[in-house]
Write a structure and sequence with these properties.
Layout lengths: L4 E9 L2 E9 L6 E7 L7 H12 L3 E4 L11 H12 L2 H17 L3 E11 L1 H11 L6 E5 L17 E6 L7 H14 L3 E6 L23 H18 L5
Parallel strand pairs: 3-4, 3-5, 5-6, 6-7, 7-8
Antiparallel strand pairs: 1-2, 2-4
Helix pairs in contact: 3-4
């Protein structure tokens, strides 16, 4: 086990003061960096834990914020904020770029080796950074098969991996087909993994508050999806000691 250090980082975005979670691996050298986007509820212990797990593997990792330091446990409040956000690519890109600027400002981040991963709304933001032409080494998403504006996927310059539950009512087969058609038409190096029997947000441990319909944890697939993301990073963004 390596020694990981963490700190909260405040930065402005979307007319809010965001509070991200930065995790750094042991040492003082530059390391590949990963931006982590949370589910629509916002930055919580799950995403903080994933940042720290990636730091254990040798990455500089920043889990970014969506709601100005708040975690939206009320599904109605979460949807009221996230649905307009998901319908506004420029706004998503602005939130993503603000977080990316924080990650790039970290002196231990290798600016030539950055990836973006995300879940739900955070995954959609990762994809929009790619569609905006950001120089990323990889994009990995779970539950985020969003499609962009015509032809903008052609600006994605890295491999894209996406995971989705087969029984996800929010990302049904038609949405999968639209996403894969967009990636294929753009010539993106893409992969889609469908996890049999899984619902939306299957990767997220059970919560102690109400959740939207169609959401449910699937422990085995949650572990598999995490391994798939780690494998993507190892392929596209290897850590060299």
């Amino acid at each position: 086990m390596t020694t990981v250090t963490t700190r909260a980082v405040e930065y402005p975005a979307d007319h809010l003061t965001m509070v991200g979670h930065l995790a750094l691996p042991a040492g003082t050298d530059r390391r590949p960096a990963v931006l982590i986007g949370p589910e629509g509820m916002g930055l919580g212990h799950v995403e903080r834990g994933r940042a720290e797990a990636l730091a254990e593997l040798g990455y500089v990792a920043l889990a970014f914020d969506l709601h100005g330091g708040r975690y939206l446990s009320d599904p109605e409040e979460m949807l009221a904020r996230c649905m307009p956000l998901l319908a506004d690519p420029d706004r998503m890109r602005s939130i993503g770029h603000a977080a990316l600027d924080v990650l790039r400002a970290e002196e231990r981040a290798d600016l030539e080796r950055i990836a973006a991963i995300g879940y739900g709304t955070g995954g959609a933001i990762a994809l929009e950074l790619g569609r905006d032409g950001v120089d990323l080494r990889a994009i990995g998403t779970v539950n985020a098969l969003t499609t962009g504006r015509p032809d903008e996927a052609a600006r994605i310059r890295c491999p894209v991996w996406a995971g989705v539950g087969s029984e996800d009512p929010i990302m049904p087969p038609a949405q999968r087909e639209a996403f894969t058609a967009e990636m294929q038409a753009a010539g993106v190096d893409w992969r889609l993994t469908v996890y049999g029997g899984a619902l939306h947000a299957f990767h997220h441990p059970p919560v102690d508050h109400a959740a939207p319909p169609g959401v449910g944890h699937h422990p085995r697939h949650a572990q598999r999806a995490w391994r798939d993301i780690v494998d993507l990073l190892a392929e596209c963004l290897p850590v060299t000691q």
